[in-house]
Amino acid sequence: MDEKTRKGPSLAAISCLLTLAVSLWMEVELSSALFRAVLVYLGLSLVLLVYRVILGHYLVISERKAREELLEKARREAEAELARQKEKEAKGAKAAPRQKAPAEA
Fold this sequence. Notes:
Blueprint: H1 3-27, H2 33-104
Helix pairs in contact: 1-2
């Protein structure tokens, strides 16, 4: 799933619950025990959904950061390996003329 599909349903659910709460607020008397229970339920649901959205954003950011760090580590390792290979080739090139010199003499 990409970011949009992960956070889309949560934001839609929050807006749906908020719309329901406002419509209940306008039509039902606040002193009703049932209405207070519904408001508490809707409030807790909104808090949990907001927490889920915030946590989702944090996870997306954390995954992106971890992926970037992993790519950076792989790039550094590849550069180090390339430097080692070049160093070995340079040592091999220096050693080759030394070995040829006694053979020619």
